[in-house]
Amino acid sequence: MRLYLSSFRIGRCPGRLWDLTRGEGRAAVIANAMDGQPADQRREGVDREVAALSELGFRPEHLDLRDFFDRDDVGVALEAYDLLWLRGGNVFMLRFALARSRADEAIVQLLTADSVCYGGYSAGPCVLGGSLVEFAEVDDPSVVTVAYGELAPERGLGILDWIFVPHVESPGHPETEACTRVAALYAATGEPMRTFRDGEVLVIDGDAELVCS
Q1: Which end is more exposed in the chain, N or C (fewer Cβ atoms within 10 Å of the end residue's Cβ)?
Q2: Which domain holds residue 147?
Q3: CATH number of domain containing 197
């Protein structure tokens, strides 16, 4: 399993991302965490990720999970990429899109087979753990209900057996105080979690693990 999990944006060790990614560097930019935002802001968010990955030598393409809602062929699309890059935004909206498109099942299968590298920041790593309920302290779960008339999912993909909490002790980030409260809530419930400051990246390559900052 290959994971590049950043608190914010690419983080301070972009070379590690390229090292983790095999093949020709074809990358899928998945920005569904921004689905609740205005279209122009979402488009700008996609463009920012495409530009950042292009500068590192990747061949990024936007892949919108909404195009695969209520279908069963998202796995075919995902397996064509060497890197899946899931950017930040609303963790509940991202989790909903992963479930509705069945990308959650496909990603678990691809990671288990070591067929793809999973990278991203903020909401991207947050959806890999268990309970998401505590993230309501920073992200509004009702955006899912407003957009789709369904309740927001409360569980992550279960790829990690602990919760990734970003932006902690990150002066200047608007969500740092709220994320500190999220971490406190997890600590109070006894749910395993780890906190990360902006700039820090957790790199997992099989059994090897490194936090670079």
Answers
A1: C
A2: 2-212
A3: 3.40.50.880
